[in-house]
Amino acid sequence: MPTYEYQCIGCGHRFEEFQSMTAAPLTECPECSGKTERLISGGAGFVFKGAGFYQTDYRSKAYNEAASKDKPAATENKTDSNKTDSKPKTENKSDSK
Predict the structure, then answer these.
(1) Among residues 23, 33, 34, 72, which one has the fewest Cβ atoms lying within 10 Å of its Cβ?
(2) pLDDT tens across 41-75, in order?
(3) Domain spans of the chain?
């Protein structure tokens, strides 16, 4: 349940009230019984600290299994057309004399 901030229009008294989101806004000041208005506040923020706060870290097992089925299978037998000969060429020493 959120905390709402109110201000009295008559006396200017500011106060906070912890109430349900579906509850009606308060209309009466606790100090002078005057009319109040609910203020717009920035709310409380939160900060993720540390590792492990990625969207994919907490996926269900069923989701991870379905995602792995969608990925294309890795091919282990690649063609040798892009390979170069790794053996060094040797010269015939008898030709150099």
Answers:
(1) 72
(2) 766 666 666 666 666 666 778 887 888 888 776 55
(3) 3-38
